[in-house]
Amino acid sequence: MALTESEFDYVRRLVYRESAIVLAPGKEYLVEARLAPLARAAEVSGVNAYVAKLMQCPDRATEARVVDALTTNETSWYRDGAPFEVFRSTVLPALLADRPVNQPIRIWSAACSTGQEPYTLSMILGEQLGSTPRTAEIMATDLSDDALARAKAGRYSQLEINRGLPAAMLVKHFRREGTEWVVGDAVRSRISFRKFNLISPTPPSTGFDVVFLRNVLIYFDAETRRGVLRRIRAAMRPDGWLFLGAAETTIGIDDDWDRVVVGRTSVHRARAPLATAAAVRRV
Amino acid sequence: MTAAAPDIDDVEQIVTEVFGSFLGGDDESLPMRGPDTEGDSPVTATVSITGGWDGHVVFGCSTTASRSAAAVLLMMGADELAEADVADAVGELANMIGGNIKSLLPGPSALTLPMVSVGGGAMHMPSSTEAVRLDLLWQGEPVRVSVWASNSDTQEGSTS
Amino acid sequence: MLALVVDDSRAMRMVLRRIVSGLGFDVVEAGNGQEALDAVDAGPIPDIALVDWNMPVMDGLEFVTNVRSRPELRGVTLMMVTTESEHGQIVRALAAGAHEYVIKPFTPDAIAEKLALLGLVPAGSAS
Ligand SMILES: C[S@@+](CC[C@H](N)C(=O)[O-])C[C@H]1O[C@@H](n2cnc3c(N)ncnc32)[C@H](O)[C@@H]1O
Ligand SMILES: [Mg+2]
Questions:
Q1: In the list A54, A252, B120, C110, which could disulfide-bond A162, CB 3.0-4.6 Å?
Q2: What CA–CA distance (Å, rounded) separates C88 from B43?
Q3: The domain containing residue B123 runs over which residues?
């Protein structure tokens, strides 16, 4: 049976409170489809009963599972191509020219899902840094425990491997184990994974040169987007680079960013702080 | 000495990926573990593996299942299908499943083109032993994948 | 843009034809490597060939090697689409001159994403 209005509303509020993900009316079908496996696993007769039970006696573990189930973890290697190409051809060379040799390049993959994004970045870094003395570190974070566990495991089915991973990188950086392909240690070693909620007030670290915040703002309302962008800016070096998803923008949300068009994509950079309060604000 | 054999769960994973990709998406329409069935499948497609491992992969199913699969792949009505269409579709399913099973086994190995039988009748695999048999139900119809390992003690050196 | 779909299975050619024509390609089909060479010689020269490995008469690896040996076909992008999924086989195909490699089974998105990597369709053409 379909969720009642109050059951849907309960889930909507819970998910918003814990993750800021907006479940607008009309997403009832999504909620039912995502919670059905949880209801089955809990051996409850259906999604209604599952939610009703949670409403009667809320418990943290079940709540967390519900929130996790409502995150959308869709991702792929080299997603959209151009941002990774611009990272390789423009952003990374600029950083290498700029930063002292002994200073690692610091990258944050801020909604890393099952890991394709940070591993793609790490493979590019491997190719570009090669035998140079330069190093780089990637912090990969996500809210979803399930996605993060899969990211850490670094094991992908053939269907996932087919999704955008260049064949040359597959044969160079992966080995087969059974039906799966496993990421090699060198690619893994640049990345540290940890759970992080983008709505928390303090970032997992600071001083990032590059942040990938791709295809996650789309799930938030304007208010949340503004807060996330502000905090990300504070976690970055002033001359850092921010990559958003193809359908995402800072415009009209947080105007303290400049949009720089590079090749077939655009990158965002913190607008230089104004020298005095009297300086004319841009309109 | 026992020859290497693929893990039955890996074989099931492969079949699930093949059916899920080409024969209708949602979870409910995927093949499920079915009861072990006796007897031979009326429609079979066999591919052989030679090299690092020697043996055969047989994809078998009911006539109805073979026609449903062919109809989906070829986008034709089940009544428009010629026997060659069904053989083509079932052969390609065996090719995909067999090629992926080959990658579970010691390599490098070569894969033969599929041989399809739509006539039924008992299947003989001389000097081979059935190492894995996976019985599934797809749309209520029996589907079976079996992996036969050549009896390695009868072999001298490798087949090249 | 013209895509040459080379596979001995008519069912698989159908699946691939649906996907690439949905991405805006005209499609020519061939049932093995020799037929594919004949199609290329008869012209027009395709922008991309999607090539199965295991086929009668001439297999996909031989087809790729042949195309790569002919300077006038330098512009043809070659993508293997095959059940061959041993690590060493992929290395062999790339060494022979294949630009990309998709392992069967695949989802339509996978083909679109690889074509985007190769610059043949705009990124985001999937789905
Ligand atoms: C569609 S995926 C994007 C993955 C990757 N960045 C890409 O572009 O392919 C969105 C991810 O955002 C995560 N997410 C959603 N809300 C979040 C939050 N409040 N904090 C951190 N991660 C969140 C989800 O768990 C999911 O893995
Ligand atoms: Mg073939």
A1: C110
A2: 33
A3: 8-149
* Nearest atom within ligand 1 for CA of residue A19: 19
Task: Give residue-wise pLDDT tens across range C26-72.
Answer: 999 999 999 999 999 998 999 999 999 999 999 999 999 999 999 99
Domains and their CATH numbers in chain C: 2-117 (3.40.50.2300)
Query: Three-state DSSP class for A15?
Result: helix
Ligand 1 geometric centre to CA of B103 (Å): 33
What gap in Å lies between CA A265 and CA A96, rounded to an integer?
A: 21
- C-alpha distances (whole Å) from A148 to each of A68, A139, A144, A145 are 11, 12, 6, 5
Angle at A44 (CA atoms; ends A43, A46), nearest 5 degrees: 125
Q: How far is residue A88's CA from residue A70's CA, in Å, rounded to a whole number?
A: 33
Beta carbon of A220 within 6 Å of any ligand 1 atom: no
Range of the domain at A126: 82-282
Are A179 and B21 within 8 A, CB to CB? no
Which is it for the CA torsion B75, B77, B83, B87, positive or negative? positive
A119 and A251: one domain? Answer: yes
Specify whether the CB–CB gap between A138 and C86 falls below 8 A.
no
B88 CB neighbours in chain C (<8 A) are: 9-11
User: Which positions in chain A touch C101 (Cβ < 8 Å)?
Assistant: 167, 170
What tokens does B24 get? 């209708």
Q: Answer yes or no: do A81 and C116 touch at CB < 8 A.
A: yes
Q: Is the CB–ligand 1 distance for residue A75 below 6 Å?
A: yes
Kindly state whether residue A195 falls inside one of the protein's structural domains.
yes
Task: Report the 10 Å Cβ neighbour count for A34.
Answer: 18
- The domain spanning residue B25 has which CATH number? 3.40.1550.10
Read off the pLDDT of residues A78-117 as tens digits, 9 standing for 90 and up.
Answer: 999 999 999 999 999 999 999 999 999 999 999 999 999 9
Cβ-Cβ contacts under 8 Å for A100 (sequence gap 6 or more): none
CB atoms within 10 A of CB B3: 18
Q: Do A163 and C100 touch (CB under 8 A)?
A: no
ipTM for the complex shown = 0.95
- Residue showing tokens 């983008």: A198
- The neighbour count for residue C5, using CB atoms within 10 Å, is 27
